[in-house]
Design a protein that fits this description.
The complex is a heterodimer of chains A (118) and B (903). Chain A is an alpha+beta fold and 118 residues long. Helices cover 63% and strands 14% of the residues of chain A. Chain A is built from four helices and three strands, in the order αβααββα. In chain B, the strands form two sheets. Chain B has a six-stranded mixed β-barrel with strand order 3-4-9-6-8-7. Chain B has a six-stranded mixed beta barrel with strand order 14-15-20-17-19-18. In chain B, strand 3 and strand 4 form a beta hairpin. Chain B is 50% helix and 15% strand. The chains are: A alpha+beta (118), B alpha+beta (903). Chains A and B meet through helix 2, helix 3 and strand 3 of A and helix 1, helix 2 and helix 4 of B.
Chain lengths: 118, 903
């Protein structure tokens, strides 16, 4: 990992949220904003609360970057909603980010446990 | 790059905003609906389901705002918003806007114009290959008071051959040729150059080839490279040069190349370059003829000091061999410095002046904005109350001022462009005028100056009016006009003080330049320039001796006959009072020096101590035509023949220097070194250097520029002494001298129909050209100074008017209590004059330091000239008084009743 720049908290959260959104879309297929939020909350066993003020800007940013695309459609209850789907670029990005995330957490874990045992 | 794509999308979103806003609203609405449905399914009552969902959704507006920020580019959006708002504000106050833009346009325009000139003349490198390695090389004899002069041809050749530090060393001198074989005789302005001249500069001809080293040999030297202009007019732009010749001074020269018009020389309108070669034993080709200019290209990584040491080592080796070279070394100067260095001090003074004008304009505008922000205080307070923080408010205010300065800068650039159209008028004053143009550097400079100006004059008022305390107070005050805080009126006073100070510095500067010009114009040139026609004639080779004879007395018979016939024919023209000839005209620079040995004292024992004086050869009624007064003795005339005693006339400067309080008439002199210092092989057997007798003394005439002391001059008649190959003729007319041109040309054609009349001019024109630079400097500084005074007056007026309007009620009370109008007048004027006095004192201190930088461009007036200082201070004080008086008068008309009721 050569990315040693210090990021601020909001960015970390946004970056993590983006990863969660991409992962959710990969496992669940196309989904609307509400569904994504619910799914993330459920997966985290309600440990996370998705602020919608963060979710929609994050979705917009991902779309601007070309990782997801969106279109209006009908929900399971016949309600009009905007559906997001993962693009090929998003898939690649997700794989890359997952690898990096796993590497980071592994390092961090080793680091933290080493600290404890000393 | 992903982020680039995102940036592009966000930029694009700046323009399609509304549609996306509604999309987000729809999306959030559907989100809400989905949430409510789920809550309903979970068994909540419809009201509870809705309440919970809305709670969870959080601040709807805030979400929208964050979304919007992500969607577009908030920084740019606020900028656009501020710009739009600023433009609207500016449109709403057309008077203020017009004054501000006009002030800025003048200030920025002056700077852009001066920068354009400085950039073209001083900064832009010369258009040669690696110009920083090019050096101007001079002969130098500091011990004789001659820091820079030319090189002799043998010295040049030795320097070129024996140096170790130069990749190329070339020499040149200017010469004029008569083109024959055409219908009317034509004079060609040319440069005689050594073969490596163009290769040293690193330029290639457009067509044909450069000179070859062999073409410096006499016999193979009849080759020339012509200018593109000459090639177009005389050769119909035919690129095939084979067999093309041109007759110069009667000799057929083969045209071997064409130089592109982009090739730059400091001499205007050069039409040809001719290979430099000397016929064996040519008089010019000797060690004591220092007339060649040299340009060298140092090898890479050779310093100026190394090159200097190297060339001077060669020079001292030459002096070992040739004693006449003793005491003569060389000096080096970067070529660009040598060519434009003289213009530098004057230009830098103008840069400073233009900068001051802009600074004053800034102060003035800051003041205007400050006054205006007082009336906008309410608006700003409301914005602040609605949640705009201080930096946001300041950003908006500064955006407004930068907007103003950019508009002013654009207009200023247009003004500068127009002003630069007048540059051809300055072509005799400034070197490299053809290199001056508005280019990207100038545009960039103007942009930067505009932005900086806007920030400079906008920041202070913005800081002041966005102060929180003030804002809350202004809201509290309700409908009444806000009172200025003590801080803001102090700021305003400070601005006026600095404005007056800066204006004083600038005005004193322009006052000094004007005084200096006045002094220069008062200098007695030593002749009467009115009603004089002058022209040059270049005498071709056929007039001169093929083999010069050093023992002959006077000019060759053909040259004398030419002078005699031409002068007598001109003097027969009706309306001509007198005519004569001289080797070079007054005010054209010191050209011709000779050794000078007075014989009434011990002879010098080494060449180092042989003096130098200026020499002029004359013929006919030169002194009479120019009305140069005879002080003593007699003038030279037709009776000074080769058979009579050799006579000379000297000027008063020479008498002052060598024979103070002595009778100069009858003194004998040599214009050569004494015989014991001349190498015997140069003295023909039985020949003795001529002794000359001083027969007359004439008044001093300025041959150099008017700001130099006249140098000692010896005049000799061409009947008895040396002569010039291109003499200047002077004709005094009864009336308009230019009316004589046709008749004089006809007279010349009768004497020799192949000789053109060149450099036709009146002496008045030569006079005015010689003071053109100081005149231009004084005019520009005067212009800047006037502008500064106007701005300062407006500044004081503005502040005083504002103060009067603020103090209306106070004045009303005073008047109600019995103060007379005179008292009120005094009260207000005193307030303004106190500011002006502080400003003048500060300006005086500044000016004492600043004008010292001008000393190089001043003549006959000290940089701290008390008269200039005093009169400018008085003028500015009077202007300040007037600027206070008008608002003070208004204050006296205040009706106490109205003023009190208003409160």
């Amino acid at each position: 990992m050569d990315d040693t720049t210090i990021r601020n908290k909001k960015d970390v959260w946004q970056g993590t949220l983006a990863l969660m959104v991409l992962r959710t879309l990969e496992t669940m297929g196309p989904m609307h904003g509400y569904g994504i939020a619910r799914r993330i909350e459920q997966t985290s066993a309600h440990a996370l609360v998705v602020q919608y003020g963060t979710l929609y800007p994050a979705l917009l940013k991902l779309e601007q970057e070309g990782y997801i695309s969106s279109a209006w459609g009908l929900s399971e209850n016949n309600r009009k909603a905007r559906f997001y789907r993962l693009t090929r670029a998003g898939q690649k990005h997700l794989q890359k980010e997952t690898r990096e995330w796993q590497a980071t957490t592994a390092i961090l874990e080793r680091f933290l446990s080493a600290e404890e045992s000393s | 790059m992903r982020s680039l794509r995102a940036l592009a999308l966000r930029l694009a979103a700046l323009f399609g905003k509304r549609r996306q806003d509604s999309e987000l609203a729809a999306e959030l609405e559907s989100h809400l609906a989905l949430h409510i449905e789920e809550n309903l399914r979970a068994g909540m009552s419809p009201e509870e389901a809705r309440r919970q969902a809305i709670l969870r959704l959080g601040g709807l507006e805030r979400t929208k705002e964050i979304y919007r920020d992500q969607q577009g580019l908030p920084v740019l959006e606020t900028l656009f918003q501020d710009v739009r708002y600023g433009l609207r504000i500016l449109r709403k106050n057309p008077g203020f806007t017009a004054v501000a833009i006009a002030t800025l346009a003048l200030g920025i325009g002056a700077n852009s114009a001066i920068f354009t000139v400085v950039n073209g003349v001083l900064l832009r490198p010369l258009p040669y290959e690696d110009p920083e390695r090019l050096m101007s090389v001079f002969g130098s004899a500091p011990s004789k008071g001659l820091p820079h002069f030319g090189a002799s041809p043998p010295d040049f050749r030795m320097l070129r051959q024996q140096n170790h530090t130069f990749a190329g060393l070339s020499a040149y001198y200017q010469a004029n040729f008569n083109v024959s074989g055409t219908d009317t005789p034509e004079r060609l302005s040319a440069m005689v150059v050594s073969a490596d001249y163009f290769t040293t500069l690193g330029v290639q001809p457009l067509h044909g080839r450069n000179f070859l080293p062999d073409e410096e040999k006499w016999g193979s030297h009849l080759v020339t490279i012509v200018s593109e202009g000459f090639w177009q007019t005389h050769l119909n732009s035919d690129p095939n040069l084979a067999g093309k010749t041109v007759h110069l001074d009667g000799e057929p020269y083969q045209i071997i190349g064409v130089m592109p018009s982009t090739f730059y020389t400091p001499v205007a309108k050069l039409e040809a370059w001719v290979s430099m070669a000397w016929r064996p034993k040519d008089n010019f080709d000797s060690h004591n003829n220092y007339f060649l200019n040299m340009i060298g290209r140092v090898k890479p990584d050779v310093s100026r000091q190394q090159a200097y040491a190297d060339l001077n080592a060669v020079m001292s080796a030459i002096a070992q061999q040739f004693p006449e070279n003793k005491g003569i070394g060389v000096d080096l100067q970067p070529l660009q410095e040598a060519w434009v260095g003289k213009a530098r001090p004057a230009l830098l003074v103008l840069v400073g002046a233009a900068g001051l004008v802009l600074l004053i304009a800034c102060v003035n505008l800051a003041n205007l904005l400050l006054a205006r922000s007082a009336s906008r205080l309410k608006e700003i307070a409301v914005r602040s109350a609605l949640g705009a923080n201080r930096s946001r408010l300041m950003r908006q205010l500064v955006t407004e001022s930068v907007l103003l300065s950019l508009l002013g800068g654009a207009l200023g650039l247009a003004l500068a462009y127009l002003a630069l159209g007048l540059l051809p008028l300055a072509s005799k004053v400034l070197p490299r005028v053809e290199h001056i143009r508005v280019d990207t550097q100038v545009l960039f400079f103007t942009l930067v100056v505009s932005l900086a100006t806007g920030a400079l004059f906008g920041l202070l008022p913005a800081l002041e009016s966005s102060r929180n305390k003030k804002l809350s107070e202004s809201l509290k005050e309700g409908g009444r006009t806000a009172q200025p805080s003590r801080g803001s009126s102090r700021l305003r006073s400070g601005l006026v003080i600095s404005e007056v100070a800066l204006a004083l510095v600038l005005l004193i500067g322009s006052g000094l330049a004007l005084r200096s010009l006045q002094r220069l114009l008062q200098v007695d040139a030593g002749f009467a320039p009115d009603h004089i026609l002058t022209f040059d004639v270049a005498l071709p080779d056929s007039y001169h001796d093929p083999q010069p004879d050093p023992t002959r007395i006077g000019a060759p018979p053909r040259v004398i006959a030419f002078h005699r016939e031409l002068v007598s024919r001109i003097e027969q023209i009706p309306g001509v009072q007198a005519a004569g000839a001289i080797s070079s005209l007054p005010l054209q620079g010191e050209h011709w020096g000779k050794f000078f040995v007075p014989l009434d004292r011990a002879l010098p024992t080494s060449m180092d101590s042989v003096a130098n004086v200026q020499y002029r050869s004359v013929y006919g009624h030169y002194f009479t035509a120019l009305r140069i007064p005879l002080i003593k003795g007699r003038l030279l005339n037709e009776h000074d023949q080769s058979t009579t005693a050799l006579s000379v006339v000297v000027n008063e400067a020479l008498v002052r220097k060598y024979w103070p309080n002595q009778e100069p008439i009858g003194k004998t002199i040599l214009l050569t070194p004494p015989e014991n210092l001349i190498p015997p092989e140069l003295l023909p057997h039985g020949y003795h250097v001529p002794k000359l007798t001083v027969v007359g003394v004439v008044a001093d005439t300025h041959y150099g520029s008017l700001n130099e002391e006249p140098a000692p001059v010896v005049y000799g008649s061409i009947l008895q002494h040396d002569y010039s190959t291109s003499p200047a003729f002077t004709v005094r007319a009864d009336g308009d001298p230019t009316a004589l041109v046709t008749a004089v040309r006809a007279a010349l054609a009768q004497v020799d129909k192949n000789l053109p009349m060149a450099d036709v001019s009146t002496m008045d024109e030569i006079m005015s050209t010689s003071v053109a630079q100081p005149r231009l400097e004084a005019v520009l500084l005067g212009l800047f100074g006037g502008l500064a005074m106007l701005l300062a007056a407006v500044g004081i007026y503005g502040v005083m008017s504002y103060s009067v309007s603020q103090r209306t009620s106070e004045i009303g009370v005073r008047m109600a209590l019995g103060a007379a109008r005179g008292d009120v007048l005094l009260l207000i004027c005193k307030q303004g004059l106190r500011l002006a006095a502080v400003g003048l004192a500060a300006g005086l201190a500044l000016a004492l330091g600043a004008t010292r930088l001008m000393s190089k461009v001043l003549f006959g007036v000290s940089p701290t000239d008390p008269l200039t200082f005093a009169s400018i201070i008085v003028i500015l004080a009077v202007v300040a008084l007037l600027a206070c008086y008008v608002p003070a008068r208004r204050a006296t008309r205040v009706d106490p009743m109205v003023a009190l009721r208003y409160e």
